[in-house]
Design a protein that fits this description.
There is one protein chain. It contains 12 helices and 14 strands. The protein is globular. The protein is α/β, with parallel strands linked by helices. 47% of the residues are buried. The protein has a 6-stranded parallel sheet, sandwiched between helices. Strands 6-8-12 form a 3-stranded parallel sheet. The protein has a 3-stranded mixed sheet with strand order 9-11-13. The structure holds nicotinamide-adenine-dinucleotide. The site of nicotinamide-adenine-dinucleotide has 28 residues, from helix 1 and strand 9. Nicotinamide-adenine-dinucleotide (NAD) binds next to helix 1 and strand 9.
């Protein structure tokens, strides 16, 4: 049976790139994009798109049956900073969307699910450096709480109903195609745009706030690699730690300055500082390396050079 894939939340930062990568592998017509708003031109013009509000379970099931979908990537969510401003919607959207998709598999309509978690599952009591896969997890943001509940939900559905759900705890993601959707690590994308346009940037995180980040092409590769791994290699069903690279606003500014001389950065922390301070500085992802051979390609130097080259060409 051919793979028929539905991406929910295709207009966001990750969806914009993931849809195109999956269409290259599985064929344009086999990857159906969906969102409550139109996706990028590249996504809209290269294959099917359905307008879908993931809260509408009936319509979700109709689309799944119509296209004979067998895999779902659920990307729709309210991100860390946005969810703190609307906790009711954060809880409602992040939890219900997840149940709607897990139930598709429980009811035998689809075979495989990708659902992303985040470093936001960790909290202020988690060890900050080289954070292990299994550790204290007491998130104190609504986003982190929904992600941790989601991870437990994944494992529950796997253990009790045999649902083949796979997940990664993404660090902050940096890419040049899609715009970030309201997370605490968004500064690391905006800094490139501002550096190229104005040679100036005001960071909403303090200069020494170290967070784990990852270049989008590595994140997309990890996602697809995990989804294509043989079932027996996927030993963790809650969600895998994914380390990426850890740096501070000061360190990325210094790297950008090598390409854009006279780049000036100022610091003015806002409410997102508190969220960032509750997250780890660096992550240990040896389980991903050992179970399905994960290997990172982009360090800070390569990521910076690639971002600047691509953004200058737009
Ligand atoms: P995003 O905010 O850029 O995109 C989310 C998309 O979901 C948007 O296009 C939005 O229109 C859509 N959406 C919102 N409500 C919807 C609804 N009711 N029905 C259908 N679609 C709806 O987010 P992203 O950065 O692409 O993240 C995707 C997933 O990855 C999320 O689960 C997020 O928590 C996770 N994640 C992202 C990062 C990151 O740095 N980008 C890091 C960790 C985890």
């Amino acid at each position: 049976m051919p793979e028929k894939i539905l991406i929910i939340g295709s207009s966001g930062q990750i969806g914009t790139e993931l849809v195109i990568s999956l269409r290259k592998i599985y064929g344009n017509d086999n990857v159906i994009a969906s969102d409550i708003r139109p996706s990028s031109k590249e996504v809209m013009n290269s294959g099917p798109f359905e307008e879908l509000d993931i809260m509408n379970e009936k319509l979700l099931r109709k689309i799944v049956q119509h296209y004979k979908i067998n895999q779902v990537y659920l990307l729709a969510a309210l991100l860390s900073a946005t969810a703190e401003k609307n906790i009711a919607l954060g809880w409602e959207l992040n939890m219900r969307s997840h149940s709607h998709v897990l139930d598709l598999a429980k009811d035998g309509l689809i075979k495989k699910i990708f659902w992303p978690s985040s470093i936001a599952v960790f909290g202020p009591t988690t060890p900050k450096n080289n954070t292990p896969q299994y550790t204290i997890m007491e998130p104190n943001t609504v986003y982190g709480i929904t992600k941790l509940a989601g991870e437990r939900w994944n494992e529950y559905y796997f253990n009790n109903f045999g649902v083949d759900v796979r997940s990664l705890r993404y660090p902050g993601l940096i890419g040049w195609k899609g715009s970030p959707g309201g997370g605490t690590t968004d500064y690391a994308v905006d800094i490139f745009h501002q550096a190229i346009k104005h040679r100036k940037f005001e960071s909403f995180l303090s200069e020494n706030t170290k967070l784990p980040m990852m270049y989008m092409s590595d994140a997309i590769r990890a996602t697809i690699q995990l989804m294509r791994a043989p079932k027996k290699q996927v030993k963790i069903r809650s969600s895998y730690n994914l380390a990426g690279i850890s740096f501070t606003p000061k360190e990325i500014s210094k790297e950008i300055s090598k390409h854009i001389p006279k780049f000036e950065v100022s610091y003015n922390s806002d409410f997102r500082q508190k969220i960032a301070d509750s997250w780890p500085c660096s992550i240990n992802d040896e389980h991903a390396q050992n179970d399905w051979n994960w290997e990172l390609k982009y360090d800070l130097k390569k990521l910076t050079a690639d971002m600047i080259k691509n953004l200058k060409n737009i």
